[in-house]
Amino acid sequence: MKRIIITALATLLVFTAVLFNGCKHDKCEQVSCAFGGVCKEGNCLCQTGYEGEHCETITRDKFKGQWNVNEDGTLSSPAQFTASIENGPMINQVVIKNFQNFYMSENVLAVAYKDTLTIPLQVMSDGSKIEGWATITDTNPLNQHYYQHAVMTMYYKVTSSDGLQVNQYGYGGSGPSLWAK
To answer: What pLDDT is recorded for position 168?
Structure first.
């Protein structure tokens, strides 16, 4: 009789342990992550160049388009011009065309991450060096179209090839370069 009770209790404990462990809810069971994103604890961890709840958005897309630029550097006069941003060679990169209303035949490379563009130090064909960063803000109050209307505030500098002149935007007392689309 004692053996039957012990066997019954052991069986009940094993059954309870299996049932208890089997009831743990997999938070990723109903989550689908796009573009190679991976679910962890119910949230998508996105690959470089993607964002959104399910990694469904290409980050650089918000920066792409025609931009109206207003800027006044420390060495240059106030200027208004149009620049464009297009896909770069990598999924998280863009190229800026007509940068500073001077580099018409050369592209400036930038890296997109969340709401920031980073312009890594790069040497242009005339020997000048460009570097900087920008942040973008969606101006559509209803957020109906992903960054169709936006403003971007850009801080950058262009250093002459001899290093003696630095035209700054958003540094050294100058205002940042203001971009709108």
So the answer is: 97
The CATH classification number of 63-180 equals 2.40.128.420
Burial classification of residue 133, based on how many CB atoms lie within 10 Å of its CB (0-12 exposed, 13-18 middle, 19 or more buried): middle
Residues of the chain within CATH 2.40.128.420 domain(s) are 63-180
Fold category of 2-57 in CATH: Laminin (2.10.25)
What does the alpha-carbon distance between residue 21 and residue 124 come to, in Å, rounded to a whole number? 61
Q: In DSSP terms, which residues pair with 15 in a beta bridge?
A: none
CA distance 114 to 133: 13
Phi, psi of 43 (to 5 degrees): -120, 145
pLDDT tens for 47-87 read: 999 999 999 999 999 999 999 999 999 999 999 999 999 99
Joined tokens for residue 132? 């900087």
* Chain centre to alpha carbon of residue 138: 13
Q: What residues are paired with 79 via a beta bridge?
A: 71
